[in-house]
């Protein structure tokens, strides 16, 4: 059985020898369409896997930066991701390629707190659990459940940007857990930054 590329090459050679006939052109067109129908979904899957891999690497680099910050601060976690910028080394790592607000130069210090402090000179795309906990008088600061998520990226599923750094999101969420492991979960439609859903162990 001939392969699709070989069949296409044969048709082209016949056209050169005999001129362009309707039958040959039709067969070649069908061949090209079938080939594209096979290869394009594969290319999309490959591109999606590469993008996911890049997001995982980006978030793990942030985790390493947060770990270095805590070591330098005698175990005290960074109050927000902006505070750990110099430990991450590259500001671009703080921004997800899927974030609709990625071009913003003055932004909230946490993506999950769109109405919060807007002093960040770089767009922070991730939601960070301590941005919530450190604002509470009785928040735990030293002993935490290793199963709780530390950083969450909500831009991996369906995103409906609403302006002013707000959005309705649904579907896939990437999380780096307190122990440094990576987790990907699916969550129903919600407003950006619902901490209890983002950081619970089972996503409920």
The class by helix and strand makeup works out as alpha+beta
Q: Spell out the helices and strands N to C.
A: HHHEHEEEEH
Largest sheet: 5 strands, antiparallel
Terminus-to-terminus distance: 53 Å
C-alpha Rg, in Å? Answer: 24 Å
- Which residues form runs of ≥5 with pLDDT under 50? 1-9
The total of helices stands at 5
What's the shape? elongated
- Level of helix content? 25-40%
* Relative strand content: 15-25%
Number of strands: 5
Mean pLDDT: 78
How would you explain this protein's 3D organization?
It is a single chain. The protein has 204 residues and is an alpha+beta fold. The protein is 39% helix and 17% strand. The chain has helices at 4-18, 22-72, 85-88, 129-133, 195-199, and strands at residues 127-128, 149-153, 158-163, 166-177, 182-191. Strands 1, 2, 3, 4 and 5 form a five-stranded antiparallel sheet that branches. Strand 4 (166-177) and strand 5 (182-191) form a beta hairpin. Helix 1 packs antiparallel against helix 2. The chain is elongated and about 80 Å long.
Short descriptors:
204 residues, alpha+beta, 5-stranded antiparallel sheet, 5 strands, 17% strand
Secondary structure layout plus pairing:
Blueprint: H1 4-18, H2 22-72, H3 85-88, E1 127-128, H4 129-133, E2 149-153, E3 158-163, E4 166-177, E5 182-191, H5 195-199
Antiparallel strand pairs: 1-2, 2-4, 3-4, 4-5
Structure described in brief:
With about 200 residues, the protein is α+β, with helices and mostly antiparallel strands. The protein has five helices and five strands, in the order αααβαββββα.
């Amino acid at each position: 059985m001939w392969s699709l590329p070989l069949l296409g090459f044969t048709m082209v050679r016949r056209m050169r020898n005999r001129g362009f006939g309707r039958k040959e052109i039709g067969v070649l067109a069908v061949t090209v369409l079938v080939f594209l129908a096979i290869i394009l979904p594969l290319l999309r899957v490959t591109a999606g896997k590469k993008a996911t891999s890049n997001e995982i690497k980006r978030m793990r680099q942030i985790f390493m930066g947060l770990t270095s910050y805590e070591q330098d601060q005698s175990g005290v976690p960074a109050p927000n991701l902006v505070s750990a910028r110099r430990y991450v080394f590259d500001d671009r790592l703080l921004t997800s390629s899927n974030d609709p607000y990625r071009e913003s130069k003055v932004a909230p210090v946490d993506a999950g707190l769109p109405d919060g402090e807007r002093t960040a000179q770089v767009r922070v795309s991730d939601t960070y659990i301590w941005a919530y906990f450190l604002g509470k008088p009785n928040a735990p600061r030293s002993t935490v459940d290793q199963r709780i998520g530390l950083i969450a990226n909500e831009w991996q599923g369906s995103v409906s940007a609403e302006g002013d750094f707000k959005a309705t999101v649904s579907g896939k969420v990437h999380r780096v857990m307190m122990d440094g492991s990576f987790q990907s979960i699916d969550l129903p439609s919600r407003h950006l930054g619902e901490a209890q859903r983002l950081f619970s162990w089972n996503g409920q």
